[in-house]
Amino acid sequence: MSSSNPLIDPAGLQRIRRLAWLVRLLSLVGVAGVLLLPLLFWSQPDWVASVARREWGLTTLQLDGGARLGGLAATALPAGCALAAIWQIWRLFGCYGRGELLAPRPARHLHRLGLALVALAFAMPVAHTLNVLALTLGNPPGQRMLTFGLSSMHYLSLLFGLMLLALAAVMQEAARVADENAEFI
Predict the structure, then answer these.
(1) Domain ranges in the chain?
(2) What stretch or stretches form a coiled coil here (predicted)?
(3) Concatenated DSSP letters for 108-121?
(4) I want to staple 168 with a disulfide (CB 3.0 to 4.6 A). Which of 33, 37, 110, 133 is the partner?
């Protein structure tokens, strides 16, 4: 359905366009955060040490350039998933901003967004494990750590991704029905 469809309320479409503009703006902020925050974090040993001790429970850790570079590399896995998700949000709301609502293209972007969030649910605990390993690999034997943990954020990312996959399937079917109905009019 496009903006020329008489079934779409013009006021509703205008609200959707404003929301699409806002979401796309926030997507740009998200991209900047995903790209810059890991660089800032891993470049500051004191910040890394504070987080590693307080949140990851590490007492003996290495903060040399190699360990922090390893942590940054591990962070690239969830960052890539997050960037893929943000890209699909950008594309999805671009469709909405053009008035493309019940159509195959937004359904595809919603599906890909769901896949990116499912991938993120798996990437986050793997990256955490690799971060801890990077910071403790240089420790003496017996003080190296390999951890693996799951949190409610991982579960929510998985659940939300699966929900979006289901919504995308529903949206694809709705787009198909809308196309069939448009042929009869």
Answers:
(1) 10-184
(2) none
(3) HHHHHHHHHHHHHH
(4) 110
